[in-house]
Amino acid sequence: MKMRFSLVIAILLLITISGWGQSELDLGLQIDLVFHNPDIKDYTNLTFRGFSNFHTLRARIIATGAVNDYLSFQGQLLSDNADNPIWFSAYAHLSKPDFPYLNANLGLIPIPLGLFGHRTYADKNPLIGVPLIYNYHTNINVYYPTTNNSQLLSQRGQGYDLGSYYGNTTRGIPIIYDACWNTGINLFGSFKFLDYSVAALSGALAYPKVQIEDRNPNLTAQMVVNPVMGVRAGLFGSWGPYFSKSAEQYFPAGKTVDDFNQVLGGALAEISYWHLESYHELVLNAFEHPYLGYLKNNGFYSEVKYKFLPSWYGAVRYDQMNFNKVEDETNPGSRHTWDYNVKRVEAAIGYYLDRKVLLKLDAQINRFPDQKSLNDEIYALQMTFTL
Questions:
Q1: How many domains are contained in the chain?
Q2: Which domain holds residue 127?
Q3: Measured between alpha carbons, how far is 128 from 146 in angstroms, rounded to an integer?
Q4: What pLDDT is attached to residue 64?
Q5: Looking at residue 166, what is its pLDDT?
Q6: What's the CA gap between 146 and 93, in Å, rounded?
Q7: H/E segment holding residue 351
Q8: In this structure, are residues 107 and 8 in contact, taking their beta carbons and an 8 Å threshold?
Q9: The predicted structure's pLDDT at residue 87
């Protein structure tokens, strides 16, 4: 299965690349400038690379092109605070005009499920932050698995920095990671009131992989119904290994990354009426662990945006992340959540200077009921230029 997945990706990429020389290239640039209150912790917004939507300067270069009526492509480079840019996406899109039943994305592709993937850009996201289920780092280390609950509990609230492995700061994995995409194949389409999506990915939703390794692919599926105009609701799920290959040396004898999977299920709803838009997602998640069984958590967010004047809008999002309890072996009978629960409220007022310039005045309040030292409040002004 692993070899077949790699072979299919390689063949399709060769077919796609062969046509790129015949296309015309369009380049776009998006620049985000952010000014915020001093001395923020910003633990809940950091990516694996230490990037943040609240950093002072972020820039994206977006390249798009069409080879013909059936084949197009997109690539993106992302730089944070003038750091070296990274590839955010690089994929081909296959579709047939007037045939919505089957389309395909191939390469370093967008997240194939949920509601936030297509709204991740600053000109589409009405707030500055990303929902917790798409970014918040738990205390699970994919390079060096903990061997008992007590060790895991000692690292609660430290997912933003679990120490240094291989010379880099290691951060715990989220439920779904928006800031880096997987290499894979995504088939999707529409049949009247029904939208579907299925995908095979090189890495887990919690820990995406650009390179294709010797492991089982991560499988995802989503089904969404559109019963009436302005209303969408659906279910989604995924299954696949999530540990780094380098962690196998610490596994029980004979075990590999394919023996321990991330299992995820979720529901979504989107409602649009007049000047009102709302998005809602719920995720139930479990990480199968080599020593600790299934570590379960869940999260949800509800987001509302209302356009109250032609160039003005207001938006608010409420998030929660919750973790199941495990027993502390050093204190029999004592049970604690395996990471700290977190709640967030974020609100913003947005103003379009014109179609290419968006201003946001944003407030993000993060609360940890069981560890108040992690509480954080960020007040920020963001300016987004899309060229």
A1: 1
A2: 105-386
A3: 34
A4: 92
A5: 60
A6: 40
A7: strand 342-354
A8: no
A9: 83
Q: What's the pLDDT at 13?
A: 47
CATH number of the domain where residue 324 is located = 2.40.160
Closest by Cα among 197, 35, 15, 33 to 112: 197
What's the CA gap between 308 and 293, in Å, rounded?
Answer: 49
Q: What is the pLDDT of residue 211?
A: 87
Is 215 in a helix, a strand, or coil?
coil
251, β-bridge pairs: none
Question: Which of helix, strand or coil describes residue 12?
Answer: helix
Say if CB 165 and CB 144 are below 8 A apart. Answer: yes
DSSP code, position 151: H
pLDDT attached to residue 167: 62
- Say if residue 25 is exposed, middle or buried (CB neighbours under 10 Å; 0-12, 13-18, 19+): exposed
DSSP code, position 49: T
Which token pair is 160?
Answer: 């933003």
- Which residue type sits at 142? V
- With H, G, I as helix, E, B as strand and everything else as coil, classify residue 20: helix
pLDDT at position 336: 97
User: What's the sign of the alpha-carbon dihedral 200, 93, 210, 123?
Assistant: negative
The tokens for 272 are: 């649009």
**What is the chain's length?**
387
Q: What is the pLDDT of residues 119-166, one digit of tens each?
A: 999 999 999 999 999 999 999 999 999 999 999 999 999 999 988 766
Residue 317 lies in a domain: yes
Other C-beta atoms lying within 10 Å of the C-beta of residue 298: 18
Render pLDDT for 328-384 as a digit per residue (tens, 0 to 9): 998 988 999 999 999 999 999 999 999 999 999 999 999 999 999 999 999 999 999
Question: Is 298 inside any structural domain?
Answer: yes
What are the residue ranges in the chain where pLDDT is below 50? 3-18, 20
Burial of 10 (0-12, 13-18, 19+ CB in 10 A): exposed
Residue 162 lies in a domain: yes
Instruction: Report how far residue 339's alpha carbon sits from residue 341's, in angstroms, rounded to the nearest whole number.
Output: 6
194 closest CA partner among 235, 226, 162, 152: 226
Q: What is the pLDDT of residue 180?
A: 86
The verdict on residue 128 lying in a domain is yes
